[in-house]
Design goal:
Rossmann fold; about 20% strand; binds 6-O-phosphono-beta-D-fructofuranose
């Protein structure tokens, strides 16, 4: 096993609260073990264009509790192409970077896997996405903070909904997944939750709303994952309203507010543990894996398995949400 002398670190895809804590942990753990660190700016875009800068222990001071990512992030089309990845590998050789830590989600790890396979680059991933849609970790960095942001917002919406006897449709993030929606539906006592996984149709939703009204609910909240197959919250509200209009209806789309803000204690600790875990995995010769936390233990899962989010079920939580919303 050849000794690692310099690693690169980047953030890619949608930013998530706690990414800075992960960057800090990667840099400080590497320095602790006598390894140099190059920060790669703008995700894979910066890897292709050579936007690298040396980072020291003090370069990452006072970022632990800050949202966003000091390295910036991007969704890089060019990295989906083999030619883009060849340019990136050349940049790494030129900068004498022996290994890479990538912080991101599905798209980030798909690219990392290809870079490792095609160019023999050693890569370890850290799950950084508010969506929590990766296998091999109970939680992704940013999910806890984002769900707390949603809960705070929905609690406020609840006050005005009950004052006016209104039905609110609240759209939360999750283009392909309903983890944010389901978790926050339980935490806010929503009457129903619409997710791409559960596949509930409009008739079922109207039945639930009618039952709620019959049992004297004067106002209600429906949480909608943006990726629901019936459409977004606007569309679903319009479909419901055209057939069932017992309530005055309003829609709130929470949007990117969910990605910002200072990371929670949970996300800071998760990011710190996984940052250390990722660097130590590279030192021990691992590659092509994501560091994750399962049952409070840091474990490593091949990228190919990690991006298969289907292995992380939602059924039990959905059942809890349904029982408690009567
Ligand atoms: O991947 C995280 C995420 O926030 C998704 O939940 C959301 O669908 C998407 O990013 C939005 O991406 P963008 O900021 O590029 O529009």
């Amino acid at each position: 096993m050849s000794k690692i002398e310099r690693i690169g670190v980047l953030t890619s895809g949608g930013d998530a609260p706690g990414m800075n804590a992960a960057i800090r942990a990667v840099v400080r753990c590497a320095v602790f073990h006598g390894i140099e660190v190059s920060g790669v700016f703008q995700g894979y875009d910066g890897l292709i264009s050579g936007d690298l800068k040396r980072l020291h222990a003090r370069s990452v001071a006072k970022i632990l509790g800050r949202g966003g990512t000091i390295l910036k992030s991007a969704r890089c089309e060019e990295f989906f192409e083999a030619a883009g990845r060849s340019k990136a590998a050349a940049v790494l050789r030129e900068a004498k970077v022996d290994a890479l830590v990538v912080i991101g989600g599905n798209g980030t790890f798909t690219g990392a896997q290809k870079l490792a396979e095609e160019h023999g680059v050693k890569v370890v991933g850290i799950p950084g996405t508010i969506d929590n849609d990766l296998a091999g970790t109970d939680y992704t960095i940013g999910y806890d903070t984002a769900t707390n942001t949603v809960v705070e917002a929905v609690d406020k919406i609840r006050d005005t909904a009950s004052s006016h006897n209104r039905l609110f449709f609240v759209e939360v993030m999750g283009r392909d997944s309903g983890y944010i929606a389901l978790k926050t539906a339980i935490a806010t006592g929503a009457i129903a939750v619409m997710t791409p996984e559960a596949g509930m149709d409009i008739d079922d939703l109207i039945d639930i709303l009618a039952r709620g009204e019959e049992s004297n609910k004067t106002s209600s909240i429906v949480i909608v994952a943006e990726g629901d197959t019936n459409g977004g919250a606007m569309e679903i509200a319009a479909k419901v309203h055209s057939r069932y209009n017992k309530y005055d209806t309003r829609v709130t789309v929470l949007g990117h507010i969910q990605r910002g803000g200072d990371p929670s204690c949970f996300d800071r600790v998760l990011a710190s543990r996984l940052g250390v875990g990722a660097v130590e995995a590279l030192i021990s010769g691992q590659s092509n894996v994501m560091a994750g936390l399962v049952n409070d233990e840091v474990i490593y899962t091949p990228f190919m398995e990690a991006i298969n989010r289907k292995s992380k079920g939602l059924d039990e939580e959905l059942r809890v949400a349904q029982i408690l919303s009567i």
